Amino acid sequence: MERVRVRASATSANLGAGFDVLGLALDEPYDVIEVEPAERLEIRIVGKGAGSIPLDPEKNTAGLVAKAMGRDVLITIHSNIRPSGGLGSSAAPAAGTAFAINELFSLGYTREGLVPIAAKGEVAAAGVAHADNVGPCIMGGLTIVCGDHAKSVAMPDVSVVAILPDIEVSTKAARELLPACVPLREMVLNVGKACMLVAGASSKDPAMIGRSLMGSFNEKYRSPLIKGYEDVRAGALSQGAYGVAISGSGPTMIALCPGERSKHVEKAMIGQFGKHGISCESFITRVGQGVQII
Ligand SMILES: Nc1ncnc2c1ncn2[C@@H]1O[C@H](COP(=O)(O)OP(=O)(O)O)[C@@H](O)[C@H]1O
Ligand SMILES: N[C@@H](CCOP(=O)(O)O)C(=O)O
Question: Where is the GHMP kinase N-terminal domain (predicted)?
Fold first, then answer.
């Protein structure tokens, strides 16, 4: 095999209470990652991140993955996910590269086995190897990561409305905001919400999923970074959203809703950010199925 091309999609990590544990694969947007054997490890980037994303393999999430797998390859990243947006822009190249190298050299890893390898790439972006973006990016659906284990749960048919306000929030900075310890009662609440979210997915109950997205540890400490957060959330719920959360470390907000309400929810969320003087990009997508060869 001369070259492998894969599509590696955006992801929405944490899903409220599932900090560093839960993540949702999105269908779009996605990066295209091309990997081919080379004399030395080299990275090329075209698209949204070109010029801002480091090409030094030691500072690039895809480069760290190739080094962890011990392979000299040329990696071309066609970048379509807004960097520092809360949509796993750093994770998609890491996940795609792990999957492509596994295919190119017939290494025999399972999708689950690739997750901890891909997570090593996130050290370049967040300073820690968190797997709640690379996990869903590789596995698809709603993914639960714990240690080196990753399991995917199918989601009911919901629309995902993503609103990207014109605010910059880096994962590294957003992680530094979080306290090292939380009170026992707060931990119990978040574990309960995370469990109910997974229960909602497995019982195909989108309302239960939606309720579990809100009132989390992640929301409490990070929503102050997103001007108008409460109003935007209220706007989405008033138009029929099941629930709203900060996507990853933010500033993107996601709303899960019935397909027929997605345009109404999108318009309400954008309108509320507008009332706070903030412009936004937005898109509507569905739950993704994980990295695919194209
Ligand atoms: N291959 C990569 N793709 C995207 N970002 C990368 C990559 N390698 C390193 N980075 C760095 O990671 C940061 C984006 O990661 P992060 O803050 O986690 O954003 P996101 O919320 O989109 O995941 C950027 O500062 C970028 O320079
Ligand atoms: N659990 C991480 C998830 C970061 O997601 P990203 O899409 O913002 O990179 C965190 O919240 O720090």
Answer: 62-141
